[in-house]
Amino acid sequence: MQHHQIDVHDTADERLRRDGQRYTANRRVLIDALREADRPVTVLELIDGTPGMAQSSAYRNLSVLEEAGVVRRLVTADDTARYELAEDLTGHHHHLICERCGSVIDIDVPTELEDGVSAFSSLIADTHGFRIEHHRLDLMGVCPSCSTAAH
Amino acid sequence: MQHHQIDVHDTADERLRRDGQRYTANRRVLIDALREADRPVTVLELIDGTPGMAQSSAYRNLSVLEEAGVVRRLVTADDTARYELAEDLTGHHHHLICERCGSVIDIDVPTELEDGVSAFSSLIADTHGFRIEHHRLDLMGVCPSCSTAAH
DNA sequence: TTTACTGCAAAGGGTTTGCAACATG
DNA sequence: CATGTTGCAAACCCTTTGCAGTAAA
């Protein structure tokens, strides 16, 4: 994951400004937390790591950041939203999801497979009149720690 | 989508019995509604089409049916769960999702691509110690009706 | 000095649960 | 009759929103 190809803070600042928003301390803290997490994290996980920020601020800021294209909101297996940095800041990747506990791990996909998906994607876009903006290829199952734990 | 390869009601009845559950009128109605929908539908859509059933019963029954492996619960773009019949009753397929309105369309994927995903899947299972049970390959974008509507 | 941002508390919306009545094996 | 199922209403949890005060351009 090439976090430092471009400066995340500069990019965030620029994209927020474009939307008439400010890159405040809270928002910077969220971005840092997302960078450190290096996997999609829930809002609860985010504010646990950043004491002092109101939940409502976290939700509002993440929503503003998503609007600006700095972060991405995911809904995976459970019904809790998870956030990660936008793909142009971290590189394109996919997810390995535990359906038991909801945890998510980033994975990279071989280029051939990625190309196959893109080709298929354009085909479907044409036949269904959809504007396809991205895709997700998630592998779902049971993570090591959940499979040792009794269910 | 080969709904009639095996009889859905017989299968549902059998799988529920295996779990010590009964195949009641409400559950039969839900299964019929899901068959007719032919795409993942929300609980609200389901009970709108089947007046007389309490919401709580719909939720409880869908949960029992999911446990029995008769239906599958999805969470897509919005935070509303959608249900569809289990894949062994309808055939393996993937989803075309509108991120604007949350609607979902079933799509089939070429065999080569499907094979590529399976191969990749086993690879990741090995390297991460995950038991991978299935995958999802969703194409996400904006559906025709949302792209004509003003945003 | 206007506009965005913040925290707090309250409301919202999908989902789950307690309970007493009902239905099924 | 013993156990699973139902509807109703209340509770639950994640998320959003109203508001009055604060900070930034």
Description:
The structure is a homodimer of 151-residue chains. Chain A has 151 residues and is an alpha+beta fold. Chain A has two domains: 1-91, Arc Repressor Mutant, subunit A (Orthogonal Bundle); 92-151, 2-Layer Sandwich (Dna Ligase, domain 1). Chain A has seven helices and six strands, in the order ααβααββαββαβα. The model of chain A has no long low-confidence stretch (mean pLDDT 91). Chain A starts with 7 loop residues before the first helix and ends with a helix. The longest helix of chain A is centred in the last third of the chain and has 18 residues, at 111-128. In chain A, a hairpin with a 5-residue loop joins strand 2 (71-75) and strand 3 (81-85). In chain A, the strands form two sheets. In chain A, strands 1-3-2 form a three-stranded antiparallel β-sheet. Chain A has a three-stranded mixed β-sheet with strand order 5-4-6. The A-B interface holds A 75-79, 81, 96, 98-99, 105, 107, 109-110, 112-113, 116-117, 120-121, 124-125, 128-144, 147 and B 75-79, 81, 96, 98-99, 105, 107, 109-110, 112-113, 116-117, 120-121, 124-125, 128-144, 147. Strand 6 (131-142) of chain A pairs antiparallel with strand 6 (131-142) of chain B, so a sheet runs across the interface. Chain A binds a DNA duplex (25 and 25 nucleotides) through helix 4.
